[in-house]
Fold:
Amino acid sequence: MNLKKANGRWRQVLGSVKERWGALNDNEFTRIDGRRERMVGKLQEAYGIAREDAERHVNDWSARV
Structure:
């Protein structure tokens, strides 16, 4: 599933997202609200990684879900 499809099912996939990226808190997940760009940005901030790495993590996760 890509993150675009997850937008409509954000609440359903949220458990998987929280499990994968536990460094993000509930408030950040609320702000992300299924939006890919916000997710990438929050991962960059929380984990101190480059944008390309954050995008790769999101892509890998969405391919598995």
The chain has one domain: 3-64. Residues 32 and 38 are 5 Å apart (CA to CA).
